[in-house]
Structure formats: structure tokens, C-alpha cells
Amino acid sequence: MIMMRNFLIIKFSAWIVIIIMYVLVHKFIATTSAMEDCSTLEEGYYGSTCPSAEDIVKNAVERAVCENPGLAAGLIRMHFHDCFVRGCDASVLLDSTPGSPSEKESPVNNPSLRGFEVIDDAKAQIEAQCPQTVSCADILAFAARDCVTALGGPDYCVPAGRRDGTVSLKHEPLQHLPSPFSNATQLRDSFALKGLTLAEMVTLSGAHSVGSTHCSSFSTRLYSFNSSHPLDPSMNPGFAREMKEKCPVGSERGNDAPLVVPLEGVTPNRLDNNYYVGLKKGRGVLSSDQSLMSSYVTAKMVRNRARDGDGWGKKFAEAMVKMGSIDVLTGNSGEIRKNCRFVN
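Request: output the structure for the sequence above.
Response:
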């Protein structure tokens, strides 16, 4: 009996070891897979082939933002829209061709996405110095970083080495980009599909501390939330009155000049953690934003980022680098476009 008991104990212990090893191996594989794209990119990638590339992009961004500060938020958003559709391959920059409308024509991007001319300017200057060396995807990633710093956000290094895609389809942005009407759970799932964690989703949402949105993106919160509550109860009543003045009944139907409001009204031209402070007060414009405070899954993260602006800035930079590595094309995949609007 004693020998049998000892045998069973040894056998049970062996199974425990096997299970632990199985879990550790699969965790390692998952972690390695998540880091694989990022590891294929390198900081200072153009140091020998086109050393002036990042400076050219930075100067182009600074000139454009000086003339039109709103372009900074637009270029950050463009980088996000690019990476979530086909990965960070500059597919969002491609123009439509006969019979094949591109991502630019999607209602998610047209007419709200802006800043294409800034990328064109930087690309033309780089091509004059380093022909077919620097990808449009890298230029867009550099430009987004430079817009972050231009708006008072953190500076950070952008690993490069992306190559450009050759396909851009109008219907895909709606399939991959989260909706302004999403709730926190839907946002979590949307970001998870791109390899981003819940915490990274909340952190990247802080980009909404700058930029603006059409009244049509949130007018239902003001006038027709549901049959019992015309006004979204998660919206601060005083803030709702402000928004009703800016977005009167009927403005959601749109016209030649649709009404827009800032996504964060306290420091609308500065990338900071006031976005989270506003959510705590029920002053999130989009229902997707306010849901981060309404949901128990993310509310604590919102409060933490509202308290610690410096900590949020550091996390934001890290999350931007990770987002910029989503499904990148490297090596012999894709191409280096001569013109960001067209495939070679």
C-alpha cells in the first residue's frame, strides 16, 4: 500500500510539472508572437541610408501645425486609422483607382480624415534626397510622433523599417475601426484583436484630449438616448446644456459645413490627461469615451490616469510604439512607394 501511495504521489507530481511547463511554454509563445512585429523594426533604421529623414518629417509637421494646429490631432488619428486596417502599411494614404475606391472613401475617413498633404510634402522632400528608401508607413509613424510632441505630449523614439502595402479597400475601415458608439467591452475586444491590452486601449483613448468631432457622432446622447431618457444619464447635465447650445436639434443631419465640437474643451490643443479628468466629471463627448468611466472594467484605470499625467504620458508613448508595430510589412514584403498616394 505504501509503495502504491508513493507511486501515485510521484505520478501526480509529474503531471503537475507537465501542466506547469505547458502553461509556461504557451505563455512564452504568445508573448513572443506579440513582440515579433515590434522586434522587426529598429530605432535609427535610416541612420545610414537616409539620415535626414526624421528631421524632414519633423520640419514638415511643425510648418503645417503652425499654420493649422488642428492638423496635429488629424495626423495622430490617421496613424491610428492606418494601423487598425491592414496594419501599419500606409494603406490609408492610397487614392482610389477606377472601380476600386480606397480607404479614404470610407465614411469613417471621408471627409473627416485630414493631413494627407503634410505626408505628401515630407515624402517629396525625402524622395529628392533618398529615392525609394523611406516608406510612407514610416513617414506617417514619424509624423504622428512629431504631432504628439507638438501638442505637448511625450517625445519618444519610433522604430522603423515598415514597408508600404499595395491594397486599400473602402469597406475595410468600418470592419476594423471601433465606433464612437461602442461601449468599453466592445472597445476592449476591438483593441484585443490588434494585440493591444485593455490598459493600452484606455491609454490610447487619451488621444481624444485633442481634436474634434461632428455633432452627429453624439447627438443621440442629447436628444434621443432611449424611450425613457432623451438625455444620456451618464452625461453631466451642465455639460449637456453646453453641447445642446453647440449642437441644436437638426445639426445631426449634417449640411455643407457640419457642426463640430472639441473632444475635450479645457485644453483642446494640448495632449494631456484632462481627457480623463473630464470623464470623471461626466464630460466625455462620445459615448465610447464616457463608457470608460461608466464601466467597472475600466473606471479605475480612468481615475488613475486622471491623477497621474506624467505616468499616463509615459504609458501613452509606449502604447503608440506598440500600436505602430501592428501587422507591419518588412523585409521583401510590400514596397517603398515613390508617391504615397499610388502604388509603384
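Residues 3-37 have pLDDT under 50 and may be disordered.
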